[in-house]
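Internal ticket #5521
Category: modeling
Description: The requester needs a full-assembly model to guide mutagenesis choices. All entity lines are attached below as received. Residue total reported by intake: 227.
Assigned to: D.W.
Attached entities:
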Amino acid sequence: NAGVTQTPKFQVLKTGQSMTLQCAQDMNHEYMSWYRQDPGMGLRLIHYSVGAGITDQGEVPNGYNVSRSTTEDFPLRLLSAAPSQTSVYFCASSYEIPLAGGTDTQYFGPGTRLTVL
Amino acid sequence: TQLLEQSPQFLSIQEGENLTVYCNSSSVFSSLQWYRQEPGEGPVLLVTVVTGGEVKKLKRLTFQFGDARKDSSLHITAAQPGDTGLYLCAVPLNNNDMRFGAGTRLTVKP
């Protein structure tokens, strides 16, 4: 099992450019999510999906789009990059949907470090 | 203000020392997780605590969930350089959301 894979590992964009961050998992997990990690702020949920064809917004969704056409893949699209989107992006997956009291393990990818100039 | 407040924000100690880091909130949670994140990697789950007052041990790491389920602590005995990393606490919420604290960045010097 490769677990959760993310590409690219590093990316530099200019303001206004668009790009897609790729995420794939081979564990047949239904729940997948995208986080951004900024210094002093921990990880914040951007979008999540509870299964193929179903997506929803997290805590900080503005400026990002997602789709889930297959169980394995969950790409994150930046429509028009802004310097405020400079961050490290993590994709994660789990067998169960996070619920209050839940104990399931979320598996994280290695991250994509994005810089927007 | 963040839902989860972690302290200290930074901690630098010598190998062999003991340490405790904290995860506090004014909210009550049904469960709480601790993750460790090494530079350039994603977080890795260490433990989940569920019951108020619960204590779990993972080798030299001891995790405790507060009696009121509002806070948690992580104690490391005889820290080693391999313990260096960012320690994050997280709670699953009812709306399919996971909330993380900002973390404690631990450096253990040889």
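Resolution: model delivered.
Comment from assignee: Chain B has one domain: 5-109.
Ticket closed.
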